[in-house]
# Entry
Amino acid sequence: FALSVACNGQLVAEFNGQRSEPQLGQFLQSLAPEPDDLSVSKGKHLLSRGEWREGAEQFRKVLQQDADNPPALLGLARSHLAQGHPELALPILREFPPSSEYQAAEQLTQLAEAMAAVDLQIEDDDDWASIYANALRLAGRGQLPAAIDGIFEVLRAEKDYRDGAAREVAVGLLHVLGEEHELSRAYRAELSSILF
# Structure
């Protein structure tokens, strides 16, 4: 007999022929998500709802078992940034392990550095410095839509503001917001229309 398994419309596993019950059980067990994967998924879901502390707790549970779990590290860094703790996110991001999440970690690093330095910056006399700084402060309070709107306002006026730093901050804010968030797709489209 044949058994095919699909997930989200994609074939993920199959086998043909006669199998013993233990072989069938082992095959099905190999398809089950790992407990860490479930905790990471739960953490991402919590972040998408703005439940930053609760999401961080999920990621910490995973990291207690697997200290180098890239999705959990990235999720924990996102939650630190949304709670206004770039000083906690930076060590995670600067020591991020090679993985498929590495590029997102690099983009979050630039946001974390900007957030950490916002109160150290002397307000420039340009028209956009206070809006830029305020957007970074809003991000640190978890008010991501307001922060993104502020950065987008700066970018509409000056696409290369602060030698591209505002563009990098915008991308980082979208990573903090997360792909799971209901506004993410609209914000990504808006950023593309602003920059291109």
